[in-house]
Structure formats: structure tokens, C-alpha cells
Fold this protein.
Amino acid sequence: MRLTDPWLGQDLRDSLTGRPGRTALTVFAVGIGILSLAILMAILGGLREQTARIIDRFGADVLMIHDVGDDRNADLDGAFVRQLEGLMPGAVVCGVRSQPGHDARGFGRLRIISAGPGLGRIRGWIPREGRLLDAADRREGQYHCVINESLAGRAGVQPGQMIPLASSLLQVVGIIGDDEAASMTGSADGAENMVWVADTVVLSGDRSSPRPDRFHAVLVRHPPGWTPPAAASRIRSAFPDTRITITTPDSLVARTRTLRNTVRIVYGSVAMLCLLLGGTTLMSLMTANVQERVPEIGLRMAIGARVRDIRNLFLLEGAVLTLAAGLAGILGALLIVAIAGNRLDVPLRIDAATLIIPLTAAALLGLVFAWFPARTAAAITPADSLRVDG
Amino acid sequence: MSVIRLDDVGKAYPTAAGPVRVLKHVRLAIEPGEFCAITGPSGCGKTTLLNLAALLDVPTEGAITCGGRPVTGLDHDELAALRGGMIGMIFQKFCLLPHRTTLENIVFGARYTGMPRADAESRARELAERLGLSGVAAQPARLLSGGEMQRTAIARALINEPKMLVADEPTGNLDAASAAVVMDLLRACSREGLSVLLVTHNQHLLHYASTHYECREGALHRCA
Ligand SMILES: Nc1ncnc2c1ncn2[C@@H]1O[C@H](COP(=O)(O)OP(=O)(O)OP(=O)(O)O)[C@@H](O)[C@H]1O
Ligand SMILES: [Mg+2]
């Protein structure tokens, strides 16, 4: 069968427009299956992208150490930080306190990060304006801070100007990008803005603030030549009695991998079911077509059609139907992503795989499920088919 | 040389109650230009015989030769190629593609013979002209009269320049006037050297034929 065959176009047009209702129903049923597959691909793509972003923000050679138990207690202390520094010479170690800020002035939700200058080095921040906190800020307990771009914009401050926070006035020394700050605010409590002060600073009027020498978490950037898992096991063996959890890029990925697998299995089986239902619809409607067209098939055989000509006619019909359905399904998926994409909690991403895999699936589905009706058609004997009332 | 030749041919259909022998010891040879009519009571096996002669079916006994070539043992595809090039079929119910135009239905006869589409179209136009179908050439076939439909079917059968036309009660659904037109056409074809094998119930049409067989209980009897 040559696709450039000038006869094929007319044959296809005839069979597809001959029963428009049936054609539409088939395209709809298969299209739903392809749509669900395309959405699945978009979700998986989105999760993959989200994972990459999480790791990117977290830092590839960074570990985060939490104490086990209540997160609000800052149970890690300065001694622990210094022990870690001794354990891995060349590592950057930084204790971090994190607390919600009171947004009295409509700047948006804040998170106050109390940490030494190591934070900037671990996170690899580059100030957009001004500078990051330095050792002097920490040593002298200066009321200096670094804030993110949006907050600077809302508060209308430049480096060198003052920003009110709790009952304190802080001098802004530098501004970092929102994207960089997002690695510290996280999305958990919806905080958009970050204020970074030295861990030696006690903000007045903030009684909930823990003691300066206590931390919620310790961030470690391991020295070159190490890997996060190696550094983690080194730390665990050095502090066998300390109840800590260590987050590495790998453990973050593992967490999203679990989510991805869940999506793949749960949503994937729904998509498979939709595809199967679409396929059986295709098969039953095409079988009905074959039955109705028995006299026509007899005629074709009488004028010289070979068995494979008849089979290919129906196979091609199935392939065209499912390709049309595939395109419709993908268009539907693009539409859904465009309309609902940013209103959903699940990240969605459209890329080549989102398009190619469902289209391939459509073509395969067409071939597999059109195979049986096509075989039925090809098995019809000309003498018997011409006896059927046309 | 005979266009088609049936030697001691028999046909049995398998049924639940065992094989039913519909034709037995049939001898028939159709020469070029012969107009052969077959009559017989309903169920005697005329259509079965025609299907064998048109290479649409294979006999359970005996041998068939087509243009001197034995067809026993040919596979589906070889038979298809042979009947596509040698035989034109005409049916009682016309078997047109209802949504296609008259011209497209005529062209359709060349669908599987490898004739270039443009050649098929110009030949179809000639045939439409000759069979008086030019006026309805662009009409969908479902809107044609019965006579026009059968003439379209004849044109479709002629487009491949076959050696033999096989017609199973081609006038069965036509009135007397249309039937006469169709029969005149078939006779004209046979006078140009084409063989015609016709099955009919209509005794009034026998005078068109040059030879006449009667089918009785699965056997063929030549009539004077
Ligand atoms: N595929 C088949 N399987 C079993 N029996 C069949 C089959 N085809 C035809 N027959 C039987 O063979 C016999 C001859 O059928 P055929 O159609 O050849 O008769 P006919 O002479 O053409 O009749 P009519 O004039 O009514 O068209 C019938 O009894 C019919 O029932
Ligand atoms: Mg019959």
C-alpha cells in the first residue's frame, strides 16, 4: 500500500464521511484516551521539572540537618555547628533559625531567617544590589538584613535604607532575587518574602524568638571530593546518639520519585483504561462498518482487490481515525493545561514527550484495534459477500 | 481458445448436515464473442456456477481454465489479479457506491488494476458517452434510475477491457424498456468480440443469446 496512491484518498473520505456519527463517536472515545495520556505525560513532566527545580534551589552538594521531633524547638546548638566544622574541614556549616515574621505593614507574608554569612555561601547567592551579610555583621550583632526583591519593591527600600520589622528597625544591606529567596521561604506556609538577619541578632519585641545560640536546622555544604550521602553517613556515625534527620538532594529526589511513581501507577492505570475503552469503541464501530460494507467488499474483490488491499483499507481507516483522535486529544490536553494549568496544585509541563508519546500511542492503538475488524473484512469470501443484500 | 472452460466441475457447500452438492459434472466452454444464457429454477445453482466462472469461487471437483491457463491451485491474490483483468461483473442489485458520482463509479472498476487514474478517467468518460450516461455523469449514483444504474455498472465492468462479462440477472430489477437497453448493450459487446455469460429468469431475453443452457438439479443441459 502506497500512501501516495491517488485512489486511497477517496476511499478514506468515503468511509469516514459515510457514517459521520460513528466517525465522531470513535474520534471522541479514542480522543478521551489520548487526552488522559497526554495529561499524564504533562503531569509527569511537571513533576520532573519540579524535582529539578527543588534540587537546583537546594544545592547539589548541600545537606540539611534537622533535629528529630518538634520542628518548632530549636534544639541544635552552636556547639553542634562547631563540631561539624571540625568533622569536615573545608565544609561550610551554618546554623539556621527560621520563623514567621509579623506582617504589620502589608508587605506580604514574611519569613525571618536568622543565619550567619555561611548561608549566602551555601546557597550560592549573588546579591542583585548591595551585599550579603558578612562576618562583621555577625560578630557585632548588627541590625543589618538582606531581603528579597519583591519585598524591597513593596517596602520601597534600597540598600542603606531602613525597614521596620517586629519592633526593630533593620538596615537593608543587600537585595537578592525572589527565586533565590524562595529556597528559604519554601512554599509550605505561603511566605513570599524573606528577611535574612545574622543569627546573633535578637529582634526586640519578639518573645517567641529562640535564643541566639539555638538553631532549627544546620545547613552544610560539603567540601569538594565528597558526596552528600557520604557526608551524611559521616555525620551520622560521628553523632550516633544525636537524634537528627539529614536531608540530601538524593532524599529529596526520592520523595518526589515516590510521588511520581504514585501518579504513574494511579493516574496511568486510569489513562490506560480510557485508552482501552477508546480502543474497544474503535473496534466495535469498525466491526459494524465492516459488516455493513460486506457487499462493497465483495465488489472490491470482484474487481480485483487482493486480500491485503481489503485489510489495508480498514487498517488505514483505523489509523486515520486514531491519528485524528490523537490530535484532538492532544489539542484538548493543551487547552486544559492552558486554562487550568496554574490553578492546579499539580505542576504541568508540555514538551515533546507530551506530544509524541500520545501520538505514537494513538497510532499503535489504531493498528492494534483496527487489526481485528480489518482481518474480518479480509477474511470475507467474494462469492458469499456478493450474496449479501446491499 | 475458450475464454473460460469448466471441465467436469462440481461444487459442494459445507453445511451443518454435511456437504451439499449443488453442481455436478458441469462442462462449459465460453468462446470469444459468445453470448451464453443460462436459465433454470431458483436454487438450482446458477449463481454458484457464475461465481465459479467469474473466478470468485473455487470448485470442489473438476478444473477451470481461464484463457488457456489452469486456475486450480492459484491463490487468492492470483485469482484476484486474473478476474480484475479478464472478467467484468454485473449484478442484479447493481452494487454501486451510492455516494460517488456515476463517473466515479465507472472509474472505480479500475481501482485495483494498476491503471493510472487519469487514463481511467478518460476511459470512463468515453464509456459514459457511449452508454448514454454523459448527462448524469456528475450525479451521485444513488439518485440514478435503475436503468442508469445498470448501465453505470456495465461501464464499470467494461473499463478494464475484460475478455468476458458475467451478469447475474442484470435485468431483474429493471422494467422492460430498460431491460431491452441493457440487453442491447450486452449484445453489442458480444458482437465486438467480448464473451457474455448471462443468468436470467426471463425467457423473453433468450433471443439475445447465441447459446442457451438450462440448469436443472445441479447439471447443465444445452438447449437448441
Ligand atoms: N455458501 C453457501 N453455503 C451453503 N449453501 C449454499 C451457499 N451458497 C448457496 N448455497 C445453496 O446452493 C444452492 C444453489 O444456490 P444458487 O444461489 O447458486 O442458486 P440460484 O440458481 O442462483 O438461485 P436463484 O435463481 O434463486 O438466484 C441453494 O440451495 C443455496 O441454498
Ligand atoms: Mg442466483
